[in-house]
Amino acid sequence: MPHLIERASSGRAKCRGCGEKIASGELRFGEQLPNPFADGEGALMTHWFHLPCAAYRRPEAFIEGLATFTDAVDDRTALEHEAALGVTHRRLPRVSTAERAPTGRANCRACKTLIEKDTWRIALVFYDDGRFVPSGFIHAKCVKEYIETKEIRARVKHFSPALSEAELESLTLDL
Question: In the chain, what are the helix, strand and coil shares in percent, each to the nearest 5?
Answer without folding.
Answer: 35, 25, 40
